[in-house]
Task: structure prediction
Amino acid sequence: MAPREYVRVYLRLRLLGCLILICGFFAEASPLSAASAGSAATPAPADPHTLSPSDASERIDALRTEIAYHDELYFKKSTPVISDAAYDQLKRELVALELAFPAAARDGAVATEVGDDRAGSFATYRHRMRMLSLNKSYTEKELRAFDARLMKQLGRRELDYVVEPKFDGLAISVTFEKGKLIRAVTRGNGAEGDDVTANVRTISALAQALRAANPAAGAENSMPDLVELRGEIYISYSEFERINRERESAGEPPFSNPRNLAAGTLKQLDPAVVAQRKLKIVFYGCGACEPAQARPESQQALLRQLRAWGLPTVESPRVAHGADAMWRAVQAVGRERGKYDFPTDGAVVKLDEVALQNQLGVTLQAPLWAIAYKFSPERVETQLRSITLQIGRTGVLTPVAELAPVKLGGSMIARASLFNADEIMRRDIRVGDFVYVEKAGEIIPVVAAVNRARRGPDAKPYVFPAVCPSCQSALAQSVAEAAWRCPNMNCPTQIKRRVEHFASAGCVGIRGIGPATVDKLVERGLVKNVADLYRLRAEDLLSPGAQAGKSTDRLLTAIEQSKRIELWRFIDGFGIPQVGPVAARALARRFGGLAELARSRQEDFFQDGRTAISGVGEGPARAVLAYFAQTGNQEVIRDLVALGVRPTTSDGL
Ligand SMILES: [Zn+2]
Result:
């Protein structure tokens, strides 16, 4: 295909994909389908027809900020705060708005991106064939519309589908060259991901080489020169429970769900830690294959081939002829999934024949020949007793619902995230209300909806506090984001969270400093910023009357040793808004030292109206400049240098 023709076809397919999303969006926005899909997990999105262009532009910006925030939590930190259903709805709303108001969506649509799971601590590797996500559906109607569209485009009267359970883990691409496992890479941003080969090799069920002989067929297996096999890394429920029991007995907080545990484990830097947690892998797809004719000609044939190669694959795929059978197969997966030992949040419907798949093609983010169906999450009703506020290290206040304890998905729930103040207002959630709580996709609980019928006559609209509960400073809300912040740099709770973040294993990594120690040091006034850690003496670390011992020595040694670690870890550790490990590494490469970074100017980041440092976008660049514009932060850098902190830049990057 000529490049221009390719672009045209691509654009047409992409528009089609968006239209499907929009149809789904409006279908879901109607009360009836919302109830049947259990998708009232999020507030009703704004109807594009009722918005003015300036409102739409504002909402698009807000949605992008929100989505970027949740992407960071979901893909990079593996700690999502909203349900998958709520996240999907944000994305759908954004796609609908970007299409309805192209002028407002001036700098391109973010809703077409697949997210980015790259953690910044691994080498990245480019996929030979782009790694896609799946379009999602929530109702029978949407699934049937998918089938109708395919039949129309392909000119067929009935199509064959393969229906598989949707594994809820971390997508992975494993490359075999002449049958040997050579590389395992996460989806990343779809084009390139983290090279986690060493960690993936610890998975016991994963053969290091494809089986050449096929005992079942009594023949030799075909062996491509190179094949990228696509699948999912997950953790079984039984292993999840085993690990959490161990953690609880060690006095550590349990993991919130298997998906996050699997993702967090795969991104561990030490393969020995990975090997201790029994990750599992399942294969269900194929990326690049050379020579091309070695690729199995149907999804069924691919699954058979994977099994013949000795790889774990989908155990009981269902083959369905036509939409009725396809819908029955999806429902059957829904009924059975309670018995699976692996986490699943839906079913995947794939057109069986590869030749037909190729006729339909793909968008930048998803194939047009497959669709995921997400099951409605389990939901229970309980009373909202109060709303408390958690203060993060950047001063953002997150409201938390304190609930009458209730059993949900096998565990007792007493708290649920409420997202932010605007969400509480928009959904008119009131203290004393009876609310529905969900754990969509087995993740942390969220307040899905309010049971208005049970609202007491005295229930008053929730009023977000005007002052910080920790330091009583007046709260501020920025225009760009829904979150309220405590603007006081010296807010004790913010200091605690900042110091914890700085000392955590992902950043500077001072062993032996946990939240309890940090709380004490901040409360006693010994630590007001991260530089103060380097002023601590043995007597500061002791409870009154106690003797200095090995643990204080160890902690002081750990603090001393941290003076010489990599520069990017310090930069990451400062907790500058929007600056994660990827941007921190880029900044470390560019500036080479703490003092140099602190002296950075506008022109270091922007030239001719463009960002000048690869890996540091406009948002992070402005955040860095704003951060070092504060004299307090300049002083911390000066103190760090004066106290002997000499980060290295010899990490070879
Ligand atoms: Zn405060």
Summary: The chain has 22 helices and 22 strands.
